[in-house]
Amino acid sequence: MRIKLTVFSLALISAFSIQAQKIELGLMGGLSLYSGDLSPKEFGLYFNDINAAYGVFARYSPSTKLSLRLAFEQAHIEGKDANNSDPARRKRGYNFRSIVNEASLLVEWNVFSIGREGGVQLIPYLFAGGAYYSFNPQGQLNNDWIDLQPLGTEGQGLPGYAAPYELSQFAIPIGGGFKLNLNKNVVLGFELGARKLFTDYLDDVSGTQPVSYFDVRDGNGETAAFFSRPQFKGDQDITYTRGGKFMDWYYIGNVTLSFRIGDRSGITGGGRGRGIGCPGNNF
């Protein structure tokens, strides 16, 4: 995975035709949350399991309206049936946690600006792009956290079941926020973004394919069977489904702080003077 991320990162860096005076280097930090099969209603925003996210980024502004942003970020996500108000879901007993490592290349569209070029300016923006990320769902057993993907909790790898899912995949980040130019050199930002995923295994729980408890136990072991159906204690086989119809998502809300390098005249200014206008360029 590290090799894949390194190759992807180098490819992204090569996409920049860098002119130093148009570059910002920055830090980001904030909150992350998960939405999926272990959420109260599977699809939506639920705030019981908010965790930390942080990263670094570089922003390159080739024009007054558009910026390119290369970012590396880590987000911590988790979910558990114990937080559900539905007694049946609480009894089901699923739980997971994961660290998500993400490399992204985003296009930012600076919508308009309020304020004075070279001084304090407010610039709302929207962003979208591509990301390559890794994840590794773990489940808690007593006081230990166990990697779930190698277990095959839904019969992965057994005859008649799906192949093991990939732990490195592509995603589409989308979102928006605003930049606050504090002066010619420093930019403070606030943003919220969602990640459109192409997997439902972020939490190791997916789909509506029937799973046989005995298939999992006999084929992949007792630990896989426990995480497949934690509350089941019977001696007769049962067939069940573990997931639902929606794909998983994760969300990140960040505060960003960046510093311009090279020409300190700024990169996402507004029109000359005060007022509201299209973002200007100080080059």
Structure description:
The chain has 283 residues and is mainly beta. The chain has helices spanning 2-14, 87-92, 213-220, 222-228; strands at 23-35, 51-60, 66-80, 95-110, 113-115, 121-134, 138-141, 144-147, 168-181, 186-197, 211-212, 239-240, 249-261, 276-277. It starts with a helix and ends in a 6-residue tail after the last strand. The relative contact order is 0.21.
Radius of gyration: 23 Å
Identify the overall geometry. Answer: elongated
Structural class call reads mainly beta
Number of helices: 4
Order of helices and strands: HEEEHEEEEEEEEHHEEE
Q: Spans with pLDDT under 50 lasting ≥5 residues? A: 15-20, 264-275
Biggest sheet record = 8 strands, antiparallel, barrel
The CATH architecture classification is Beta Barrel
What's the domain count?
A: 1
Largest sheet: spatial strand order: 1-2-3-4-6-9-10-13
Q: Separation of termini?
A: 40 Å
Tell me the fraction of residues in β-strands, as a range: 35-45%
CATH names the topology as: Porin
Helix content: 10-25%
Could you give the count of β-strands? 14
CATH class: Mainly Beta
Please tell me the overall pLDDT: 86
